[in-house]
Amino acid sequence: MSPPSFDKNQWYHLYVNEDKKQALMGTSLFNKGGTHGAVFFNTTNTATNVQRWQVYPVTVNDITVYIFRCKDGGPNGFMGTAYVETEATDGETRPQMLRGDIANENVYWSFGSWGDGTWFLTNAANTTDYHLNKKGNGLLAMSSNTTAPQNGQRWGFETIDKIDDEQYSSVNLVGIKTSISKPTTVYTTSFISLASAVPSASPTTSADSRTNSTSSGLSTGIKIAIGAVTGSVSLLLLIILGLYFYKKRTQRVQYSKTQEMPHDIYFQGDASTTRYEMHHDGSAKYEMPSSYVAEVPNHHPATELPAYTPEAQRRYPG
Fold first, then answer.
1. Which of 61, 69, 159, 280 could bridge across to 197 with cysteines, CB 3.0–4.6 Å?
2. Which residues partner with 67 through β-bridges?
3. Is the pLDDT of residue 205 over 50?
4. Considering the chain, what percentage of its residues have pLDDT values greater than 90?
């Protein structure tokens, strides 16, 4: 049986078990800060945006997978899978609309044939052990009960209208960026596990933001960390230099404290060997002659005697 072929410029009506009165719905990203939306079944009204789906085939690491977008979710809303604790089905996993920057391999789907013109859907995050299944209450879950027949897993599709919107002409996800100019990939009848082939997505970055981050160098967080480390090292160096100069200052020569001399200290030198400034060995010595005596004549005018008169030499008995 021939594989399903999809026109990437078409909106599709998706249903199960050949019941076209029920349609798969995907809402806008109204939950969790604009990152999540709901997926469920309701009465068919293909005029509404929530029931208009684009099925976009892409190739990831040479493996063909399919992206599902609904008009109400916008070009950056993708049908993926998520763990839901309250889900009673084995695996506790439901489909949800996810914003592109938090999506990973859980938005990659593959088709398999039941052999009767209907198809089952498997998800890259859940492997071929689980099929996308419509439950009786209109909700969906990934089911491990894959034994035929499974009416809630027999998917069909029909076209509604042309998309003709440039926003839907490409797919931009972490790990892939595919435009409409790329050739349509070939359908595969059996799902190939993508666990080791599909790159995981970062919860907060898109492909464009990752590219910009790489081209601009270091991220802001790393720059802040480097700045903090640099500041810490500079502060440490200043502290070390301060301690070094403080230690050098305290090691300078200490001056002796002035002390008062004891009051009972007096000169005890030898007077015979002591030389004073005026009697040093190199000084000239002069002595008035004692043998020369002259009498002043009476007619000689009076003359002032010298201020110093040598003392007459005295003789002492031997």
1. 61
2. 56
3. no
4. 50
Q: Which of 110, 115, 54 has its CA nearest to residue 81?
A: 110
Residue 95 one-letter amino acid: P
Phi (first) and psi of residue 245, to 5 degrees = -70, -30
Q: Read off the pLDDT of residues 86-134 as tens digits, 9 standing for 90 and up.
A: 999 999 999 999 999 999 999 999 999 999 999 999 999 998 999 999 9
Contacts of residue 4, defined as CB under 8 A and 6 or more positions apart, other chains included, come to 111, 119, 157, 187
Q: Which amino acid is at 248?
A: K
What pTM was computed for the model? 0.57
Q: Is 185 exposed, middle or buried (0-12, 13-18, 19+ CB in 10 A)?
A: middle
Distance CA 318, CA 309 (A): 26
Cα distances (Å, whole numbers) of residue 293 to 35, 285, 317:
141, 22, 24
* Structural contact between residues 69 and 79, judged by C-beta atoms closer than 8 angstroms: yes
- C-alpha angle 60/65/69, rounded to 5°? 110
Distance CA 57, CA 34 (A): 25
Residues in the chain: 318
Considering Cα of 42, then 44, then 79, then 172, what sign does the dihedral take? Answer: negative
Token pair for residue 278? 């005026």
Q: Which residues pair with 110 in a beta bridge?
A: 122
Of 52, 139, 26, give the one whose Cα is nearest residue 87. Answer: 139
- How far apart are the C-alpha atoms of 96 and 30, rounded to whole Å? 11
Provide the Cα torsion 87, 88, 93, 98; round to 10°.
-20
Give CA–CA dist 61/208, Å, rounded.
Answer: 19
Check if the beta carbon of residue 185 is closer than 8 Å to that of residue 64.
Answer: yes
